[in-house]
Amino acid sequence: QVQLAESGGGLVQAGGSLRLSCAASGRTFTYYAMGWFRQAPGTERELVTAVSRSGFRTYYVDSVKGRFTISRDNAKNTVYLQMNSLKPEDTAVYFCAAGRSGDSSGINYYQEEYDYWGQGTQVTVSS
Hints:
single chain, mainly beta, 11 strands, 0% helix, 51% strand
């Protein structure tokens, strides 16, 4: 069992920055590829970014490329999402998720590949 706890959400003006953190406890953190998803009202949950177990491979959805950065600190059992140049369309609840991966360089792209989820943190970007 893995417990995930997100923090760092809030209200920010367009063009601003936020840094989300996701602290993991329980099973060995390095067994898991990690991802950040988001869900805005009336929309489906989407994968925003993901990182491999090693931290060396990352994925970003096109809409956040060049603005968001995912990283992980395996010594601290924490994954981060640095969000810069925020836009009103980034407004959503952001969820951290962990999924087992047999490949230290593998990326989990689909929700079904994630076994554990955090409760979510609200990010609101005002125009």
